[in-house]
Design brief:
The chain is mainly beta. It contains 2 helices and 28 strands. Helix content is about 5%, strand content about 35%.
Length: about 475
């Protein structure tokens, strides 16, 4: 792909991307909602908090003046619509930085988007580029917006309070634009090749012969996952606290109605099936056995415009076959288990069946279900379960009720899977009384390897006040 000019944009494949920022600058990423604001300090990824809690963005070290951001686009939470790539300097303006550029690479090392700044001036902070959602996929935009008032101006413009006690604000401060002055070019740094396939963005035809796919918001990490790909490429989801199961690139399928879906070459073991159907009729989904017979139902719903995440296992031959009943257009995505949402002490508000992960110590999970049908929860304890190609028996359902409910489920130490098996309606969940994990667990998935504790927005803004 050619180099973009300022303001230019291009689709990028929805795969884990590595983003190189060159010029020897400090680098950060801001994860923004549709309003262009961070939700809280935790949505700032920088040297003091290098991993976003969702695992969707990780800041890693570099060399020769290049800093890397690893982004798992499919891990990005639904509320996040944009990821900004930010550069700043401690000493001197950006016009003195030689070769300031940003470039995104696919997993195989192919460059998919690049922007070389040409108008850096007296500013000390700049939004170099952004990744943003568009038409069910992601685009890369060359931004090049500088701030003469440095990180404080940039932070205030995106909802970060610059007071001594950081909090998320809702005011709309004014942006300070920068003058012009071109930097000298620099030779690009190229990441090591990896063994993941690149999926080129699909361009929609001018005519519309079939119903359009239903966009599915992907939430959790997972993104991309915690289990590294074979070879030198690090865990793209950037989640050091989950290694049960194997990472693979998401597989997407879509169609206009009833169908049988086949996905080949998957690693055996549990996977997340994300399904969205536009229609007001019945939705059903069953895995097919090797003899082409229906297995236990994954979905049995009359919910209008069904949305949900389901849990199933890929057989040993790596060939997953699913029978779908859908009264309308649908889209399905097969994701690694590590792509599931995390249960935390923050409120998680969703709708429909889901797959959640817990990696900490003992805790109580509080659920508020506002649907009118079955509400069923299964808990899969992975401690002591040594076979990543299967799931342990969940035993009796942790919850099995009908209608609106408030339930508290005591959870043992992670790693474990909390499956909302039936939930045809909106629900909220959060952890309370969370205890520290007692120590490392089996196969590296137990006591989570925690990233450095975030130091909040003030740590990021410290240089802007010198």
């Amino acid at each position: 792909m050619g180099t973009l000019i300022k303001g230019g944009n291009a689709f990028v494949p929805t795969v884990p991307l590595r983003i190189a920022v060159r010029g020897g600058v400090d680098v950060a990423a801001l994860l923004l909602t549709e309003r262009g604001r961070v939700r809280r300090d935790a949505d700032i990824v920088f040297h003091g908090a290098p991993v976003h809690h969702s695992g969707a963005v990780r800041l890693v070290g570099g060399e020769d003046g290049t800093v890397w951001l690893e982004t798992g686009l499919t891990a990005t939470e639904e509320e996040i619509s944009r990821v900004l790539v930010v550069a700043s300097t401690e000493n001197g303006p950006l016009r003195d930085v030689a070769g300031l550029s940003v470039e995104a690479f696919a997993p195989d090392g192919t460059s998919v988007a690049r922007y070389d700044t040409t108008d850096a001036g007296g500013e000390t902070a700049m939004v170099l580029a952004e990744l943003y959602r568009r038409a069910g996929g992601w685009k890369f935009r060359a931004v090049g917006q500088g701030y003469l008032d440095g990180l404080e101006g940039l932070a205030a413009d995106h909802g970060v309070d610059v007071a001594d006690e950081p909090r998320v604000v809702t005011d709309s401060p004014v942006m300070t634009k920068s003058p012009e002055a071109p930097p000298a070019p620099a030779a690009p740094a190229v990441p090591p090749p990896v063994q993941a396939p690149v999926q080129a963005p699909v361009q929609a035809p001018a005519h519309a012969p079939a119903p359009a796919p239903v966009p599915i918001p992907v939430q959790a990490v997972a993104k991309t996952a915690a289990e590294p790909l074979p070879g030198p490429f690090p865990a793209p989801f950037g989640a050091p606290d989950w290694t049960f199961g194997t990472f693979f690139e998401p597989h997407t399928r879509s169609g206009p109605g009833n169908d049988v879906i086949t996905v080949e070459d998957l690693p055996p073991g549990p996977v997340v099936v994300e399904l969205a159907v536009d229609g007001d009729g019945y939705t059903g989904l069953w895995p097919l056995t090797r003899s082409n017979k229906e297995g236990s139902s994954l979905v049995n719903s009359t919910q209008e415009n069904f949305r949900g995440r389901l849990l199933t296992c890929v057989p040993e031959n790596g060939r997953l076959r699913l029978k779908l009943r859908a009264d309308g257009p649908w889209e399905m995505r097969i994701l690694p288990l590590a792509a599931a949402r995390r249960l935390t002490e923050d409120v998680l508000e969703c709708e429909g069946p889901d797959v959640l992960l817990h990696t900490g110590g003992t805790a109580d999970a509080r659920f508020h279900y506002r649907g009118s049908d079955n509400f069923i929860i299964h808990v899969y304890e992975l401690t002591g379960h040594d076979d990543p190609t299967s799931l342990p028996d969940p035993g009796r359902s942790a919850v099995n009720e009908i209608g609106r409910r408030r339930e508290t489920v005591p959870l043992p130490e992670g790693p474990l899977i909390v499956q909302l098996f039936r939930a045809d309606g909106p629900w909220r969940a959060r952890l309370k009384d969370v205890q520290p994990h007692s120590g490392p667990g089996p196969h590296g998935a137990g006591g989570p390897a925690k990233p450095p504790a975030p130091r909040g927005a003030q740590g990021w803004l410290r240089r802007g006040r010198r």
